[in-house]
Amino acid sequence: MADHYEVLGVSRDANSDEIKKAYRRLARELHPDVNSAPDASERFKSVTHAYDVLSDPQQRQQYDLGGSNPFGGGAGASGFGGFGDIFESFFGGGASRGPRSRREEGQDALIRVEIDLDEVIFGTHRDIDVDTAVRCEVCEGSCCQKGTQPEKCDICAGSGSINRAVRSLLGNVMTQSPCGSCRGYGTTIPHPCPTCAGQGRVRGRRTVSVDIPAGVSTGVRLQMPGSGEAGPAGGPHGDLYLEMKVRDHDLFSRNGDDLLCQVDVSVTDAILGTTCTVAALDGDVTLEIRPGVQAGDVLTIAGRGITRLRGSGRGDLKVGVHVVTPTKLSTKERQLVEQLAALRKAAAPSISGHGQGLFARIRDRVFG
């Protein structure tokens, strides 16, 4: 097999531009449509195959190291590229599909957004800065310098593919592969936009406004169609996904749509009952503590929890009671407590027979 560098007439250290120029010159000269010489078709195939190998960095490295593949496949092709082309010819793979479009849809983007627990109750609005691919404002996604436009490839005549004959056990079979000059686009960009390097998009920052609904929780993702990366060559945007992270609160926690907190009650207020004001996340609320309330009891304030994400209404605010026992008493206070103990004649402390501990009962009342 002839040396690929000799076929193209370039040195072994030629760069990609030199290889491409040599291929374009020889392809125009040897193309079967313009050259009727008997060996023109074979030489054209050799030139095209050499360019396919040397224009691909991976294949060129393999070739320079002494590897070869008569079917032009890359590493791992194992020499089956030709048979693949044969099967494609029989089953429709070799049919002309036309040039592929430079315009492609952009990729989706994912951003994590942190919000406070009080913002979850009614929802909130955020303006979020997104660092992503945006359309090039200089060429407006055309990929070309101003005043220029893509030109039809003179190698494939705008078809985006090259037909060639491959020898097989079944004889000569016509196969089709993407044009090596235009990469299958059917057009070339001789004067690419210097701002985006002919991509039609650049990295940039833009601001996205989003209304975060009430009731979201950590891990919930909000989809914003068309707010992701801009596609190449002015292609449509992908989608933007916002993944929620709800920050922990110092006083309140969450169980589904319910808010949980704790109130400290003195022994006397627990005995006699009282009324207090609880500073909830969405404003003050009055809490009635009934006489004889027990440590671990849970008092429910209906409709003061979190707005439901799906459905209507709000959850509840559940307040766990913590009875605070004084550790220091004055002489008079101790005398009064002793008088109360004598009047009530309470039984000595004993192990409870309820079958579960105090903390388990609190858990069941709050989370059950």
UniProtKB/TrEMBL annotation:
The keyword Cytoplasm applies. SUPFAM superfamilies: Chaperone J-domain, DnaJ/Hsp40 cysteine-rich domain, HSP40/DnaJ peptide-binding domain. Residues 3-67 form the J domain. Zn(2+) 2 binds at C153, C156, C179, C182. The keyword Zinc-finger applies. Keywords: Chaperone, Cytoplasm, DNA replication, Metal-binding, Repeat, Stress response, Zinc, Zinc-finger. CDD domains: DnaJ, DnaJ_C, DnaJ_zf. Residues 123-205 form the CR-type domain. One of its GO terms (molecular function) is zinc ion binding. It comes from the Bacteria. Its cofactor is Zn(2+). GO terms for cellular component: cytoplasm. Zn(2+) 1 binds at C136, C139, C193, C196. Binds 2 Zn(2+) ions per monomer. Participates actively in the response to hyperosmotic and heat shock by preventing the aggregation of stress-denatured proteins and by disaggregating proteins, also in an autonomous, DnaK-independent fashion. Unfolded proteins bind initially to DnaJ; upon interaction with the DnaJ-bound protein, DnaK hydrolyzes its bound ATP, resulting in the formation of a stable complex. GrpE releases ADP from DnaK; ATP binding to DnaK triggers the release of the substrate protein, thus completing the reaction cycle. PANTHER family: CHAPERONE PROTEIN DNAJ, DNAJ HOMOLOG 1, MITOCHONDRIAL-RELATED. NCBIfam families: DnaJ_bact, PRK10767.1. Homodimer. Belongs to the DnaJ family. The J domain is necessary and sufficient to stimulate DnaK ATPase activity. Zinc center 1 plays an important role in the autonomous, DnaK-independent chaperone activity of DnaJ. Zinc center 2 is essential for interaction with DnaK and for DnaJ activity. This is Chaperone protein DnaJ. It comes from Candidatus Lumbricidiphila eiseniae. The lineage of its organism: Bacteria, Bacillati, Actinomycetota, Actinomycetes, Micrococcales.
